[in-house]
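PROTEIN DESIGN WORKSHEET
SECTION A - STRUCTURE
LENGTH: 390
C-ALPHA CELLS:
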C-alpha cells in the first residue's frame, strides 16, 4: 500500500539579501507512515546543490522512492526544497536567463531559447548562503516539531545538503536525533566562519571573485547525463535503462520556467535545471568539531558510492572534497562510514539504492547498524558488508 503524499507550505521570513524580510512559503512534502501516534518518529530530507528534493527523495512509486520506503517502515517522513530550488519559491532574479555566467549562457541558452545572444547579469551577486540555508532548515524543523508533537527530528541529506545539515545539527543539537549523510560534500580546508566566531559569515569572499558575480547556475539534460555517465563503473549493472529520461522528466516537473528554456529538440525546448549559486562557509575540519556535537550528542552515518568522483576528488585539486576526511573530522565515537559497491554520486537512482534504504531504516530505528556504532565498512552489491581499515 502506498503512503499518500501531503504537501505543506511553510511560512518563512527570508534572510537572503535579494529579498530579506519577505515572507515566502517553503515547499515541504510529507508521507506519514506512523503506526502509533504516541511514538511518532519524524525524518526531514534535504536535497543537494542542484537536483531538488523531488525527485531526489521521492521518485515514482517503486524501489527508487526513499520517502515511500521509510514511510512504509513506520516513520513520518518530510522532504523540503530550499528557497531557489524545486517547488519552493525562486527569487525573481532566477527568472532572468541573463543571470548566469557566460559559459552557461553560451552552452545552454542559444538559438533564441530564451536568449538571442550573450548578456550581462542584472544581479551581479551570488544568491544563496549558509546562514539562509540554516535558517530555512530551522523553520521547517520547528514546524515539524509543532505540527507532529515530536521533540527531535532525524536529518537526512544528499550531497551538498551536508553543508546545511551538518552545521545545523551542531547549532541545534536538541532538535536533531541523528544525521544521515548520503554522498556528502565536505571541503576539509573550505571557507571558515568569521574569525573569533563559530558560524558568522566571513567578512570577505574567497578568490576568485568571478564565482560570486552571478546568482544562478544552469544544467541541461545532456550535461546531466554526461556527469552521471562519468561515474558508471558497472555499466548496466549500476543504472537501469531509461533512468536518465525518468529522472530528467521528474526534475522538469518541478520547474515550470526552466523546462521552457534550453536548445530546442524537435521544436520543443529541451529544458534546463535552475539552481542557486551559493556561498557556503563553516563546514570544514574545524567546523565539524565545533562544540564536540557530531558523533556525541548527534550520531552520524555516512554513505557513499565507490565510483563517486563528485565528492571524492584527487588530492591537490581545488576544491578538494573528501568523504573520508569528513569521517575523520567527526569528533565523537558514534559515527559510521559505508562505501557501497557499483554506485556513483547519483546513487538515489541506481540499482544498489535498495541497500541504502535498508541501512537507513536500521539507522532510524536504532542509530546503529547490526550492533555497530562506529567504523568504516564496504558493502557489496548483495548488501553484505565487511569492516575495512580507514
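SECTION B - SEQUENCE
RESIDUE ASSIGNMENT:
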Amino acid at each position: 500500500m502506498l503512503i499518500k503524499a501531503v504537501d505543506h507550505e511553510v511560512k518563512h521570513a527570508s534572510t537572503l539579501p535579494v529579498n530579506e524580510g519577505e515572507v515566502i512559503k517553503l515547499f515541504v512534502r510529507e508521507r506519514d507512515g506512523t503506526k502509533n501516534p504516541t511514538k511518532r518518529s519524524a525524518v526531514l530530507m534535504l536535497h543537494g546543490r542542484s537536483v531538488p528534493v523531488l525527485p531526489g527523495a521521492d521518485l515514482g512509486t517503486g524501489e527508487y522512492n526513499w520517502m515511500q520506503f521509510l514511510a512504509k517502515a513506520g516513520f513520518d517522513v518530510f522532504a523540503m526544497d530550499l528557497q531557489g530550488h524545486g517547488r519552493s519559491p525562486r527569487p525573481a532574479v532566477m527568472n532572468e536567463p541573463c543571470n548566469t555566467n557566460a559559459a552557461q549562457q553560451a552552452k545552454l541558452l542559444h538559438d533564441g531559447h530564451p536568449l538571442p545572444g550573450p548578456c550581462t547579469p542584472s544581479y551581479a551577486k551570488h544568491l544563496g548562503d549558509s546562514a539562509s540555508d540554516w535558517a530555512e532548515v530551522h523553520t521547517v524543523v520547528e514546524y515539524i516539531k509543532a505540527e507532529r508533537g515530536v521533540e527531535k527530528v532525524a536529518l537526512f541529506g544528499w550531497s551538498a545538503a551536508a553543508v546545511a545539515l551538518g552545521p545545523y545539527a551542531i547549532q541545534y543539537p536538541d532538535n536533531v536525533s541523528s544525521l544521515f549523510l548520503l554522498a556528502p560534500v565536505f571541503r576539509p580546508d573550505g571557507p571558515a566562519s568569521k574569525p573569533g566566531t563559530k558560524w558568522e559569515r566571513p567578512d570577505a569572499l574567497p578568490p576568485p571573485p568571478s564565482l560570486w558575480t552571478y546568482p544562478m547556475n544552469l544544467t541541461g539534460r545532456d550535461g546531466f547525463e554526461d556527469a552521471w555517465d562519468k561515474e558508471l563503473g558497472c555499466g548496466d549493472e549500476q543504472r537501469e535503462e531509461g533512468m536518465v529520461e525518468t529522472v530528467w522528466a521528474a526534475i522538469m516537473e518541478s520547474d515550470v520556467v526552466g523546462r521552457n528554456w534550453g536548445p530546442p529538440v524537435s521544436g520543443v525546448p529541451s529544458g534546463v535545471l535552475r539552481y542557486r549559486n551559493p556561498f557556503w562557509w563553516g563546514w570544514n575540519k574545524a567546523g565539524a568539531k565545533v562544540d564536540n556535537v557530531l558523533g556525541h550528542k548527534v550520531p552520524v552515518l555516512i554513505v557513499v558510492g565507490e565510483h563517486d568522483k563528485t565528492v571524492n576528488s584527487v588530492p591537490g585539486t581545488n576544491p578538494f572534497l573528501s568523504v573520508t576526511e569528513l569521517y575523520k573530522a567527526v569528533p565523537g565515537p558514534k559515527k559510521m562510514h559505508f562505501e557501497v559497491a557499483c554506485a556513483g554520486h547519483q546513487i538515489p537512482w541506481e540499482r544498489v539504492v535498495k541497500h541504502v534504504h535498508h541501512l537507513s531504516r536500521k539507522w532510524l530505528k536504532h542509530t546503529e547498524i547490526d550492533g555497530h556504532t562506529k567504523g568504516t565498512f564496504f558493502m557489496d552489491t548483495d548488501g553484505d558488508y565487511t569492516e575495512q581499515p580507514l
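SECTION C - NOTES
The chain has one domain: 6-93+129-204+278-388.
Residues 185 and 215 are 20 Å apart (CA to CA).
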